[in-house]
Amino acid sequence: MNEVSAPELGGQVAAEWVSVEGKQATLTVPFAVTDESLQPLQQHAVLGQWQWQKQIKVAKLRNSQPDLPMTFGNVIVVSSGKGGVGKSSVSVNLALALQQMGAKVGLLDADIYGPSIATMMGGQDSPLEFTENNKMLPKQRWDIAVNSLGYLVQPGDATIWRGPMASGALQQLFNDTRWGSLDYLIVDMPPGTGDVQLTLAQKLPVTGAIVVTTPQTIALADAEKGIAMFNKVSVPLVGIIENMSYFSCPSCGHEEPIFGSEGGLRVAKEHNIPLLGQWPLQRQLRESLDGQQPFIRQHPEHPLAREIFATAQRTARHLYFQRQAESQ
Ligand SMILES: Nc1ncnc2c1ncn2[C@@H]1O[C@H](COP(=O)(O)OP(=O)(O)OP(=O)(O)O)[C@@H](O)[C@H]1O
């Protein structure tokens, strides 16, 4: 196994991930990976003689607040220093990609100032159901457990909440939802780095944080504030996702860096954290979010869909290896 180079799996294939029965070989990976990760094994001169299949058994990683109950495998918060950079779009697509890769995924919309997950994932046609013990039953959308203030309050009602009320409501949404057993819970944070965000970062058992930014200077400055906030409360950063990196002209293929170029990469390098992905501005992505038709399910071979899957894979991989390294 030592000689199999598999960057998507974090380097080499660990021998303990492999089990063989007759002509069937199974790769059991402790983080979400795409089926393409099997390629180095399938294409290997000797190992390629077996029929390879993938199995995901996501490792439950230590969270940053060990005194809090940890009912999920891994809580990933998605934040942005600045509004409108595509944080909710990233949260939705990361959740969808991780689910497609074989993980059990939940999605919590903690963005009280604009709970758009309910709109993007749908499910607003019927009220949220409750158990006998008054626990909320999340909506099941494309096999993802989803809860959002958007299912509970009228649009506009939550935006006037003050800090303590907002963070209290969000913690309740987190704690009082019957999530079931999850590998990853993606939390779409409110934009910014104020009291509500700081309280949430401290109160939720966060395994890792992602900062979403556009390459624009003004957005990058806010992204750095987000990085500083997570560092301050000792929440490990998984990396940066640069959204709206460029616009690819459908007619001539020219790539126009509308918001500047490589800003996310620069900030990632400066802070020594991974750049998890660079997503272009894509009309179909916006349409899919407006029309509740998941883009990566409809166009899995589209270059952006492939980048979304690669981003989800890097996220899961970095989270796993980072935490492994920290615990040694
Ligand atoms: N890569 C993209 N290509 C095209 N449209 C996008 C892309 N990313 C986001 N959008 C669109 O941009 C708008 C803002 O995105 P989104 O709501 O995800 O941002 P946000 O950062 O969560 O905003 P808020 O600050 O309100 O929470 C949405 O209409 C979304 O469909």
Quick overview of this protein structure:
The protein is built from 10 helices and 16 strands. It is an alpha/beta fold. The strands form 4 sheets. Strands 6, 7, 10, 11, 12, 13, 14, 15 and 16 form a 9-stranded mixed β-sheet that branches.
Structural class call reads alpha/beta
Low-confidence stretches: none
Distance between the termini: 23 Å
Give the names of the bound compounds: adenosine-5'-triphosphate
Described by the principal axes of the CA atoms, the overall outline is: globular
CATH superfamily of the largest domain, please? P-loop containing nucleotide triphosphate hydrolases
Cα gyration radius (Å): 20 Å
Helix content: 25-40%
Domain count: the total is 2
Number of helices: 10
Overall strand count:
16
> What fraction of residues sit in β-strands?
15-25%
The CATH topology of the largest domain comes to Rossmann fold
What does the secondary structure layout of this molecule look like, with pairings?
Layout: E1 5-6, E2 11-12, E3 18-21, E4 24-29, H1 39-42, E5 51-56, E6 74-79, H2 87-100, E7 105-109, H3 117-121, E8 129-130, E9 136-137, E10 139-141, E11 144-148, H4 163-175, E12 184-188, H5 195-203, E13 208-213, H6 217-232, E14 237-248, E15 255-256, H7 263-270, E16 275-281, H8 283-291, H9 295-298, H10 303-326
Bound molecules: adenosine-5'-triphosphate.
Adenosine-5'-triphosphate binds at residues 80, 83-89, 111, 114, 116, 191, 243-244, 279, 281-282, 285-286, 289.
